[in-house]
Structures are given as C-alpha cells and as structure tokens.
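S.,

Sequence below, as promised.
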Amino acid sequence: MLRVGIVGLPNVGKSTLFNALTRSHQANVAAYPFCTIDPNVGVIEVPDPRLDRLADIYHSRERIPAVVEFYDIAGLVRGASRGEGLGNQFLAHIRQTDALVEVVRCFKDPNVAHVEAGLDPLRDVETIRTELLLADLGTVEKRRAATTRKLKVGDKSAQAEMTLLDRLAEALNKGTPARAVALHEPERPIAAELFLLTAKPVLLAVNVGEDELGALGSGGSAGAGGAGGAGGAGSCAAPVLAWAAKEKAVAVPICAELESQLVDLGPDEAREYMEAVGLKESGTAELIRAAHRALDLITFFTGNEKEMRARSIAAGSSAVEAAASVHTDMARGFIAAEVIGAAKLFEQGDLHHAREHGLLRLEGREYVVQDGDVVQFRFHV
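The prediction came back faster than expected:
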C-alpha cells in the first residue's frame, strides 16, 4: 500500500488535517508542539465518482475504492537535521513514506502558538525544505565516505556510484531537491538505497482560516496539479500559492479545522455547511486526489456482479503489470486484456451497447494501461 506522510512545523494543523482525512478523532490535537510523537496511521479511500457509475452498470454488489495510507508525523523544527526537537525520530518516520503532504499554516489563532516569530508561510516552507536538504546532504556525504574507501581497494563499481553521489551533493548544496536530479537507468537502484527525503514527491496543504475560504475559491489546487485561486491581496495564502505556481508544485488550499468539524455531521448537514461557506466539495477530497497524482498513479477498474474495484498502479504500467497487481497468477498465465475506457462505457450506458459498437478491444502484454480503463484479464495457469 502506498504511504503519504503529513509533515510540517509544530502547531500548523497536521493532526487536525489527519483527523479530517480519516474522518475520525484518532490523532491527539493540542495547542503545543510535539503533541504527536509516534505517527498516527490511517487508510483513506481515494474519491472517484466513476466507481459508483461502473458498479451500477455491472450491477456489482460491492464497491471497493483505491486507498492510500496516511501518516501523521511529529512536527519538525529548525535544526531537525542536527537532531533538534524530535529531529532524528521525525526524519526516520519520513523515510518510510512514498510522498509528503506538507501542511503550511495560514490561519490566525492566538490560542495556538507559532514556533517561529509570527505567521510567515513562505519562511515555514523554506524551513522544511532546508532541513530535508541538509538531512539528505548528510546521507550523501556518509555514503561518499564509504564509497571512497571502496575506490581505494579497487572496487570497479564504486566509480559510477561516486559520480552519482557527486552530482547529488552538488545539487543539494545548491538547494535543488534530489527528485530534480536526472538519473541514468543504472543509477536508479543506487539512488533508491539512499532513501533520500527530497526524492519524494511533495504537495502543499495550505491550511487557511474559515474566513479566507471565500477569497480563495473552492475545489481547486494551484501549481502543477491545478489552477486554484491565488486569493485576495491581503490573503496569507496568496504568496504560497504564487510560489507553488512558479515552482510547478501542487498546493491545495484547505481549512483543516472546518474539515474536522464536518466529520461529526451527517451527509445533509455537511453539504449545507459547505454550501454556506462556498465549498463545492470537501477540501480533503481534493487533497487525497492530489496525493494520488503526486505519486504518479492512475486508476483502472476490474469488476463483475460480485464487486467493482478501483485499483492504483504507477502511470506507464503495462497490461501484464496491471494483471500482477490483481494476482500473480494472472500475470503468469496472461493471455490478453479486454479493455474499454470508463468514459466510452458511460456514453454507451451498458456493456451490451459497447460490444455492439465494437468498443471493447483485446490488448496484449505490452499495452500501457490508461487512467479509467475497465479491464477484464484473460489468463490460464
């Protein structure tokens, strides 16, 4: 299962957001730093309206969404890369995740202290970025020392490793994250062994006050993942969203406090509340989808009368790789994949008309599965 870590400075709303995402009160919320020490873990469904429509077409008795595992991780402070606060413990927890949601505080609350001098979201973004870069630089330097010893004893593979480490060190020293360093195919296994923090995809959850939601608009992210509003001139979130757009990063405005309040409301009450503050949908739904995109995942569907299931795989996966994600026997005995895009199936209304119009097609092992594909695997073992 894919894992997303929720990170940020203390008292920025990480645990409140985690509770909203998991629709629970699992995480302790308090107005002081480090109220979270051990990570809270929750499995969260990826919202996808296509799942219900497909289940209706297939008359499926059960609907099983794709899921992502979220970790609520203790707050990071300046100097964490040197062990300040819960630095070493915090960084170890981050290494276990596949992507990061960085919560950036853009709400004012005199009852919740800020660990830095006042509200400055861009400074906070830079603090987190710097600590992760410094932690990675330390990791690379330790590996370089070990690789140097290999070179001295004539290890032929060490030279290629040192070339990569030199490039990584140069980039990190310039403030460039590891994910922006182009890798040759033989270098990928070496880089993977380093578990670099800045190699992970990052998206920003811009945690605003309820009074700012109207100025920001709703239901849209800014940066590479969308084109959400940049807020009014006095908006605390505006510089963060502008920075994200410039950096081609994904930033999702969200009011974690409001979202956590929705957890205790029934569906009708929650809908009325969202309409009252100008929200078209829950901000957590957009954040979960953005996390799914940050992991470079697509969704395909398998279904019958028993169940319709959404399945996450890496973009660019082949049909046989998709089959393996369902069951290893399907990949081992793969014959073909019967495929139709969900959108084309919705246009036809049912499988009978889709077959009549020749829209279901057979694809081989190397077919690249597309987001929204509905797939039936033919196999024999």
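The longest helix spans residues 121-152.

Coffee later?
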